[in-house]
Amino acid sequence: MEHKYIIQTIEEKRIAEYLQITMLEVENLDIIEYYFYLREAFIYNCMQSEDGREYLQNAYRLEETSPDRDNLRKNFKNKLED
Fold first, then answer.
1. Which of 18, 29, 59, 61 would be 34's cystine partner, CB 3.0–4.6 Å?
2. Does some domain include residue 3?
3. Whole-prediction pTM value?
4. Buried b / exposed e along 42-65 (16+ C-beta atoms within 10 A)
C-alpha cells in the first residue's frame, strides 16, 4: 500500500511513548540520549509481536560475523550420519 502522507515526527512519538514523556520533552534530549532511546523504543516495540521478534532474530543473525561452531558441528554431524 502506498502512503501519500509521511509522518515527520514518528521517531519523537515512539520515544515519547516509550519514556512516557511529552514530545516537547523529547526535543530537550541531547543527541546521544535521543538515539539511545530511539533504539530502545524500536526494540521494545518489535518485542511486542511475533513478527517483531522474528525481525529482531533475523537482524541479530545478519549482524553476526563469527560462525556458531557448536551448532554447525551438530547440524553437519547429523547430516553426515544420515
1. 29
2. no
3. 0.72
4. beeebeeeeeeeeeeeeeeeeeee
